[in-house]
Amino acid sequence: GMPISKAVIPAAGLGTRFLPATKAMPKEMLPVVDKPAIQYVVEEAVNAGLHDVLMVTGRNKNALENHFDRATELEAVLASKGDQRRLEEVVRSTHLATMHYVRQRDPLGLGHAVLRAAMHVGDEPFAVLLGDDLIDDRDVLLERMIAVHESHASSVVALMEVEPSQTHLYGIATVEPTDESDVVRVTGLVEKPRPEDAPSNLAVIGRYVLQPDVFAILENTPAGSGGEIQLTDALNSMAESGLGGGVTGVVFTGRRYDTGDRLDYLKAIVQVAATRDDLGPDMVAWLKDFVANH
Questions:
Q1: What values do phi and psi take at 198, rounded to 5?
Q2: In the chain, N or C: fewer CB atoms in 10 Å?
Q3: What is the b/e burial string over 206-226, where b = at least 16 CB atoms within 10 angstroms of the residue's CB?
Q4: What number is the average pLDDT over the span 200-218?
Q5: What is the DSSP string of 87-104?
Q6: Distances (CA, A) of 144 to 48, 71, 119, 149, 207
Q7: CB contact at 8 A, 12 and 132
Q8: How far apart are CA 284 and CA 219, in angstroms?
Q9: At 1, is the pLDDT very low, low, confident or very high (cuts 50, 70, 90)?
Q10: Strands 98-103, 202-210: pairing kind
Q11: Maximum alpha-carbon separation in the chain
Q12: Confidence class of residue 92 from pLDDT cuts 50, 70 and 90?
């Protein structure tokens, strides 16, 4: 497979599950401890060697662009106070990656959001990272997917085992084993099947490495589940036809935090805080006391 340099991050959703917090602020800017969720995702792309990032945004998402831009007044105030640590944190997000933005004018689904990246990506393979899924930076996923893409010359999806009762929340894969324990060949994908109809309990989570062939398929993919153009449907076509080398799955067993659900978002904050040197010891001690007395 061709080397990959571009990451696409769809961020046009309305975040209705977090209203009223998201009435005037993009859900991607909700903090996980002291960084917005979207910054963790951009950092993950950069750590995997992808320094060209296209964010697919919508109306009222200006805060995303501002976050990755200079904040000269704030920088000047912090510099004048000699607050070097916070100044470095503020400047860091500015220089993380070369950021580009395109709007998804209508909320027509993930497949449509990916299609908006076609002009920027061109005829190259690229990665897609969804902002709702945070992958713990101690666990390797995107780098592994890029390596599998290069060795298999196919599109690659991240898969994770879920409880059978949860299959209706995900795209679910039909798979065949390969001679690598964490790699499977994907022969089919179905969006949000009922537990009794699910072909497996391997769910697609929000990381993809895609061949550019996906754009031609998305252009001809009719609206599916929820009246939206589903990326899952396009990938199912590629898995069945073998177009672009078909679809390979990397089975991830590491730590994933779902920030798209309110309860899971709260769990993510607790889990991330508990791993930090500056907050973890006090956080864990307080949690133990809180749980014991709750």
A1: -70, 135
A2: C
A3: bbbbbbbbbbebbeebeebee
A4: 95
A5: HHHHHHHHSSSEEEEEE-
A6: 9, 35, 26, 9, 11
A7: no
A8: 49
A9: low
A10: unpaired
A11: 63
A12: very high
Average confidence (pLDDT) over 37-62: 94
| Residue at token pair 């000269």 | 72
Q: What is the pLDDT of residue 201?
A: 92
Q: How far is CA 120 from CA 6, 90, 130, 165, 278, in A?
A: 9, 28, 18, 39, 40
Run of H or E including 8: strand 6-10
Q: Which residues contact 264 (CB under 8 A, 6 or more apart)?
A: 257, 258
User: What is the distance between the alpha carbons of residues 172 and 129, in angstroms, rounded to a whole number?
Assistant: 18
Strand partners, 36: 31
Instruction: Quote the tokens at residue 262.
Output: 């309110």
Over residues 207-213, mean pLDDT: 96
| Helix ranges, the chain (H) | 37-47, 62-67, 72-81, 84-94, 110-115, 118-121, 142-152, 213-219, 231-241, 262-274, 280-293
